[in-house]
Amino acid sequence: MNVLSQILAGSTGLALISVGVLEIFFHGDQRFYRIFLIRPEDVRAVRMWAMNVGAYNITFGLGIAVGLWLVNFSSTPASGSAIIIFCCACHVFLGFWLWVTEKRLLVSAIGQALFPALAIIFYVLLH
Fold first, then answer.
1. I want to staple 61 with a disulfide (CB 3.0 to 4.6 A). Which of 16, 49, 71, 110 is the partner?
2. How far is CA 95 from CA 56, 70, 111, 113, in A?
3. Domain segments of the chain: what residues?
4. How many Å apart are CA 73 and CA 123, to the nearest integer?
């Protein structure tokens, strides 16, 4: 896996872990309303979903980290590339799906899908 794809994937992993932490611990914080669109009266109702989505994001971020480690430090770098491509492809789809299900989150959807898509594109082009 080339360096550019690794940088984009690594940035994706860090973003996923960061957003996951926000979703788990701060989903009800109104300072993040633009990101989560959760009104104060809905915090209790969406708590379980926000906590689970946050855990999924952290898990995908850690998956990318493991993939990067395998690419750079193991005897099977292809397995690391496969993990990274899978995680990135999932988030390209999930970014699109976020926009399909909530049009007001277009910027978040682009943010979720752009770096993973670029990581895949540069992997394919420079592989």
1. 16
2. 14, 26, 8, 5
3. 3-126
4. 18
Rounded CA separation 121/127 (Å)? 10
78 CB-contact burial (10 Å; exposed 0-12 / middle 13-18 / buried 19+): exposed
Helices of type H across 27-76: 33-36, 43-73
Alpha-carbon gap, residue 11 to 105, rounded angstroms: 20
Task: Write the pLDDT tens digit of every residue in 84-109.
Answer: 999 999 999 999 999 999 999 999 99
Quote the DSSP letter at residue 74: S
pTM over 0.90: yes
Question: How confident is the model over 42-75, as pLDDT tens digits?
Answer: 999 999 999 999 999 999 999 999 999 999 999 9
